[in-house]
Amino acid sequence: MESNLNKVALITGGSRGIGASIVRRLAEDGITVAFTYANSSNSSEELVNEIQNSGGRAYAIQANAENVNTTKEAVGKTIEKFGRINILINNAGIFESKMYDEFTMEEFDRMVAVNVRSVFEGVQAAAPHMSEGDRIITIGSVNANVTGFPGLSLYAMSKAAVAGMTRGLARDLASKGITVNNIQPGPVDTDMNPVDGSNAKLLKEFIALGRYGKATEIADLVAFLSSEQSGYITGASIDINGGFMI
Ligand SMILES: NC(=O)c1ccc[n+]([C@@H]2O[C@H](COP(=O)([O-])OP(=O)(O)OC[C@H]3O[C@@H](n4cnc5c(N)ncnc54)[C@H](OP(=O)(O)O)[C@@H]3O)[C@@H](O)[C@H]2O)c1
Question: Where in the numbering of this chain does the Ketoreductase domain appear (predicted)?
Fold first, then answer.
């Protein structure tokens, strides 16, 4: 594997929350970072400036994953800009909670499009440009395996889907020496799941450590799985959840 200084990563959904922490962490490691966002153009621009001012290389790409081919195009733009792609982090995701009979089929399709289809699209576009030692990492969720209360049918389905997809892709890409892994966070304090939100008190009771995770803690695990040291880990879904409902 080459030095970080020659590596290029694309992080989907890098404008806020866990994705922005991953962008910062990989940039700190000397990796060139491209990232996508759907709407947050101002915070994306600020993040690019922050990284460039610290001597790193960064590039923000508007790419709404609800639309077919936008994630594929983002991979193309990353390669056009930086000449290569070594690490793909599938982080962009949406969360919606409702009883099963309240969801519309449009909402079903949107959940699948952003949380599942765009992941597959990104891998299909990036993997042909990747080689031995390169990495694909998806941000799944504890809800792939555990749902503590009603309303999570579609979100849980989408995160179980990426766990299964990870196992399949790990087999498909093993011959190229590319590892494929899935990180399953518990509650992490972001706009999606604020530590002072309406569900927070209940969620904290499910967590052995009694606190929410920090986006930087997820980014640290991403950095390890992106590194040379993680070379014997593939097809894994790794929990990082403070002991959620153990
Ligand atoms: N927070 C948690 O407790 C938690 C727990 C387990 C798993 N996760 C997973 O971790 C990932 C990141 O979550 P987060 O908490 O950081 O969420 P967040 O704070 O809501 O941030 C979501 C990020 O994804 C981007 N995004 C959303 N919809 C998009 C779309 N259609 N196309 C492209 N980008 C889109 C957003 O871009 P804009 O800023 O432009 O909207 C933003 O950068 C998700 O996959 C989520 O399911 C989160």
Answer: 7-186
